[in-house]
Design a protein that fits this description.
353 residues, alpha+beta, Rossmann fold, Phosphatase 2c, domain 1, 2 domains, 6-stranded antiparallel beta sheet, 5-stranded parallel beta sheet, 8 helices, 27% strand
């Protein structure tokens, strides 16, 4: 069956139909309907991947049509737009609400992105579902203790993420009481970066374990080994496989944060009512086999929280607070972060988690 898009509008303008057909090109058929009831029947008949419904229909309110569609078994899997929205009713169900007057340039670009993504996952659904399960299985658990808490944020741009993270807290001893972790951001999204993200996660987890066992003496050695492994096993293509990484240790006995960056990951240190950005800048993993990385440290006196984030989150901060980036999409990248909240307790009383 040829993939299709359904447009439900009493009198759709020619350029709207033409614009939709142009962005669909040869990949899909654009089906039109002039009323709500006819649209519902055509939806059941054709099972379109995407539906666009005008709010103003001759028989039934467009918001009611989108809500009826979204409550069907097939509709739950369909991307549904409600356009020309001038006011909202309660219990409206639609994936996209487009207000009047319509910015058609934005509408066409959004439809194109949604349809391409839907078509991609439709043709590779089994592979994608397995990949989603694999990525979710590599996420850490929240840690909660009298002395500290660790939580995380993980939000792929679409369905699969090019980001990854992990952290763990071994049982403390009289001489070592350390939280270990890493956060990274590979180039790209979805299946294009899924394999790279999995490789980087496994390599970082393995190499950081060497630090925990005192085989490595510092975090720079961890990144050096990860970078060399990347070139040895994964950099055979013409395009470099770049990854921004932060590896870190929170030493509760010495009351310090040690970290080593590759690329420019974000570190925020919160004290009382102040939030300070720690500058990080180095070549990303995969840039050059000869890159030398550096371990740095920050004292944790009076520190309430440490935040590590990928640029998908940090650039949203910069857009909102500093105006250094112009925001064209509400969310333009994978968003990942690790939040470490510190409490004023004696660290020697900590137990392993």
């Amino acid at each position: 069956m040829i993939p299709s898009l359904l447009l439900v509008s009493e009198d759709p303008q020619d350029f709207l139909k033409k614009g939709l057909r142009e962005i669909m090109e040869d990949t899909a058929q654009v089906i039109t309907s002039g009323s709500g009831l006819e649209g519902l029947l055509k939806f059941q008949e054709t099972s379109p991947m995407l539906v666009i419904v005008d709010s103003d229909l001759p028989d039934i309110c467009g918001a009611s049509i989108t809500s009826i569609i979204k409550d069907t078994p097939e509709g739950r899997k369909t991307i549904v737009y409600l356009i020309n929205v001038r006011s909202l009713l309660l219990n409206v169900k639609a994936d996209r609400l487009i207000s009047a007057p319509i910015n058609y340039e934005v509408l066409f670009e959004q439809v194109h992105q949604d349809f391409e993504r839907k078509l991609f996952y439709h043709t590779r659904s089994a592979e994608v579902e397995q990949a989603i399960s694999n990525q979710q299985g590599m996420l850490p658990s929240k840690l909660k203790h009298d002395n500290f808490e660790v939580d995380f944020l993980y939000s792929p741009y679409n369905t699969l993420s090019g980001d990854g993270m992990f952290y763990w807290y071994p049982p403390p001893t009289d001489t070592k009481n350390v939280l270990y972790g890493f956060l990274f951001d590979c180039t790209g999204h979805d299946l294009s970066s899924y394999g790279q993200a999995g490789m980087v996660w496994v390599t970082l987890r393995h190499q950081l374990d060497f630090l925990q066992k005192d085989i490595y003496s510092n975090l720079a050695m961890v990144l050096d080994s990860v970078n060399k492994d990347t070139f040895r096993f994964y950099c055979n293509s013409d395009e470099p496989q770049l990854t921004s990484v932060i590896v870190f240790c929170v030493d509760f006995l010495k009351k310090e944060l040690r970290f080593a960056p590759a690329g420019a990951p974000e570190i925020l240190i919160k004290k009382e009512n102040t939030l300070k950005r720690i500058q990080t800048s180095s070549h990303p993993i995969g840039f050059s086999e000869d890159t030398e990385y550096e371990e740095k440290s920050v004292p944790l006196e009076n520190v309430k929280e440490i935040i590590f984030s990928t640029d998908g989150l940090s650039e949203l901060f910069l857009c909102n607070q500093e105006g250094r980036f112009v925001l064209h999409e509400a969310k333009h990248d994978d968003v990942s972060a690790i939040f470490i909240k510190l409490k004023d307790k004696n660290p020697s009383t900590m137990d392993g988690i």
